[in-house]
From TrEMBL:
Gene3D superfamilies: 3.30.70.3270, Flavin prenyltransferase-like
Entry keywords, A to Z: 4Fe-4S, Iron, Iron-sulfur, Metal-binding
Molecular function in Gene Ontology: 4 iron, 4 sulfur cluster binding; metal ion binding; oxidoreductase activity, acting on the CH-NH group of donors
Pfam families: Fer4, Flavoprotein
SUPFAM superfamilies: 4Fe-4S ferredoxins, Homo-oligomeric flavin-containing Cys decarboxylases, HFCD
Record GO biological process: 5,6,7,8-tetrahydromethanopterin biosynthetic process
4Fe-4S ferredoxin-type domain residues: 141-169, 170-199
PANTHER family attached to this UniProt entry: PHOTOSYSTEM I IRON-SULFUR CENTER-RELATED (PTHR24960), POLYFERREDOXIN PROTEIN VHUB (PTHR24960:SF85)
PROSITE patterns for this protein: 4FE4S_FER_1, 4FE4S_FER_2
NCBIfam families assigned: flavo_MJ0208
Name of the protein described by the UniProt record: Archaeoflavoprotein, MJ0208 family
Coiled coil: none
InterPro entries to which the protein is assigned, alphabetical: 4Fe4S_Fe-S-bd (IPR017896), 4Fe4S_Fe_S_CS (IPR017900), DmrX (IPR014073), Flavin_trans-like (IPR036551), Flavoprotein (IPR003382), PSI_iron-sulfur_center (IPR050157)
Organism this protein belongs to: Methanocaldococcus vulcanius (strain ATCC 700851 / DSM 12094 / M7)
Amino acid sequence: MKIVWCITGAGHLLRESFQVMRELKESKDVKITTLISKAGEEVIKMYGLFGELNYISGGGYYEEIILEREHPSSSPITGRLSLGKYDYLISSPTTGNTVAKVVRGIADTLITNAIAQAGKGFVRSLIVPVDYEAGVVITKLPYSIDRKKCNCCLKCVEACPNGAIIVRKRFPEIVLSKCLGCGRCKRVCPNGAIIEGKEIKMRVRKVDAENTKRLMELEDVVVLKHPKEILEYLL
Ligand SMILES: Cc1cc2nc3c(=O)[nH]c(=O)nc-3n(C[C@H](O)[C@H](O)[C@H](O)COP(=O)(O)O)c2cc1C
């Protein structure tokens, strides 16, 4: 089975999506080409998951990692979808931004173009939007610093291999756009002030939930609530 897996810039359901990608990869005869939006690349790094992609999409034919940042705007790679070369397109997690564009027929990014070309090429798309229904979801942040516990020893600043922790008015601060989620800062902090995966409540806005309903009406699109439903659907 050949799959295109699209990842957009959502932290919500990101770990869960990677778990399913790993499980699919381990099942027989599945090749995964991974397509990643610009925001997706940044967010995957912040959550420390980027390295795992080399296992999921090992680099062979139909097992490439395609970064939007490195590809031309017309996304020629999506031609494979319009030619019907894949069995499925999967998009998980899918941001409110990408869903909003898709339901309006916009195809000006790697992922929105891939979904459009899948529709044109009779390739079924399984899409997991992070904003499934209006209400509240609990989601996890990437690394953050609890200022109440921090004693400003700045060991984290020294430990960060990517210069992603700066000092502002004595306090260390994580610059998320540089963070690679390696966790070294957390390991050297003597006070447990670095938190990985702090839980926060987020509102799913009505506008985003309405877009998800519109998504369900598109040809050959199956909308799923959680990445684990992808496995149930495919296997
Ligand atoms: C750490 C982090 C987590 C994010 N999580 C979400 C999310 O769960 N859902 C969402 O819709 N946007 C989220 N965003 C915002 C998107 O990355 C942003 O809207 C981006 O423009 C989406 O672009 P894309 O749809 O092309 O990937 C997050 C941003 C950051 C920095």
